[in-house]
Amino acid sequence: MHACLDEDGPRPIIPLSHGDPSSSAIFRIVPEAEEAITAVIHSGEDNGYTSPATSLPTRRSVLPTDDWIALTEVVSSGCTQAIEIVMSVFGQPGANILLPKPGYPKHEAHALFHKMEVRLYNLVPERGWEVDVEAVEALTDENTVAIGITNPCGNVYTYEHLSKVGVMAVQS
């Protein structure tokens, strides 16, 4: 991937892979969000611990029109917690999960922590790091609980490719 970069070009290269949004000013949140957070802190009403599934007002703010969705929805505090929640739901004896190679190490660590077998499938660099659909299909069996389709290489899959992966997942 780095071979595609023009290090002498007019635009600076911004590293996005280290996961620390505070390292660059381009990741600043909008002033309205800063003001809302400040107002909540100054109110003193929510200065304790919320439930692990977050507070109902928080969930209603995401989907305010459907109370039943707000009651069943979980809002995570970042992708790492979301992955942990998903892995804890899927983790069961004998289950396996398919993850891409290259991929995010935390996904594999969370799966192993929840006693899942991890099966790695290749991404195809010659095709823009697309999922090797045939390899995924070959790795899938009756104990496969999830196929992780992540974006470890900065790629954006086409609608057609995602559709192909989705059809294969449903049929497998």
TrEMBL record:
Residues 74-165 form the Aminotransferase class I/classII large domain. SUPFAM superfamilies: PLP-dependent transferases (SSF53383). GO terms for biological process: L-tyrosine catabolic process. One of its GO terms (molecular function) is L-tyrosine-2-oxoglutarate transaminase activity. It holds the Pfam family Aminotran_1_2. Gene3D superfamilies: Aspartate Aminotransferase, domain 1, Type I PLP-dependent aspartate aminotransferase-like (Major domain). PANTHER family: OS06G0345200 PROTEIN (PTHR45744:SF8), TYROSINE AMINOTRANSFERASE (PTHR45744). This is Aminotransferase class I/classII large domain-containing protein. It comes from Oryza meyeriana var. granulata.
